[in-house]
Amino acid sequence: MIKVVVQGVAGRMGSLMGRLVLEEDDMALVGATERPGHIGVGKDVGEVLGVGKVGVEVKEDIREAAREGDVVVAFTTPQATLEAARACGELGKGMVVGTTGFTEGQLEEFKRAVSEVPCVLSPNFSVGVNLLFKVAQEVAEVLKGYDVEIIEAHHRFKKDAPSGTAKRLAEAVLRGLGRELRVVHGREGLVGERGEEIGIHAVRAGDIVGEHVVMFGGMGERIELVHRASSREAFARGALRAIRFVAKAGPGMYDMWDVLGLR
Q1: pLDDT in tens, 159-180
Q2: Domain containing 206 — which CATH number?
Q3: How many structural domains compose the chain?
């Protein structure tokens, strides 16, 4: 039985992860946290999730909650995730992290904190999106002379832009091209003819779960690779696979390509 702790258990992804973990035969939800002052702190996590009492109290202190688990799941803010990483590194607990929006400094600190434990870090846990990363790289290897544009769309509450998934898609394309290109984020004004660049465009509207398009434009044709998520369950199901991977893995930094065997 894999003992799981969910940080930010009342959030959009945290609550879904909590409910799915409770449904899995090989997992047990043994800990959960929320930010100080949240209405759920001190309550039974099952009541917070709307499934009835399960005998686990929602805590403020991630270190206290992490002691009970094997794997800590974090889909929260960069600062909260850093706190979890420090606790997991010191306690020897694995992590599954879907938090995005890290600064370069925060990301380096995060990696140092979890260097001695197994950790899967991914901007997107969808199986389909991670296959898209691979396909985008392979297509770019063939279409080296084509213009590349990436369009991503998310709900109005998303705090960072562009999405971590869009950034990873750009990285995949650059690997396929085998060279560095300038990345531009949207365009405005008299910008002149398109140069050697990748354009990334972010849309924020309503309740869009997540959409990503990689467009390869040539003279006389256009190829588009598209992924649309209709539910956050696509991300959560992938995260469950990551939890199982981390439970068996040795110390190291992994991503969903490792989990899915795509390397």
Answers
A1: 999 999 999 999 999 999 999 9
A2: 3.30.360.10
A3: 2
Catalytic one among 134, 158, 167, 201? Answer: 158
pTM to 2 decimals? 0.86
Q: Which domain holds residue 222?
A: 127-229
What's the pLDDT tens digit per position in 98-109? Answer: 999 999 999 999
131-154: pLDDT as tens digits: 999 999 999 999 999 999 999 999
Do 221 and 117 belong together in one domain?
Answer: no
Same domain assignment for residues 136 and 10: no
Return the axis-axis angle of helices 233-248 and 127-142, rounded to nearest 10°. Answer: 90
Among residues 93, 154, 212, 227, the one annotated as catalytic is 154
Sheet of 210-218: strand order equals 182-185, 197-204, 147-154, 210-218, 221-229
Known catalytic residue: 185? no
Q: Is 159 noted as a catalytic residue in this protein?
A: no
Q: How far apart are CA 252 and CA 223, in angstroms?
A: 36
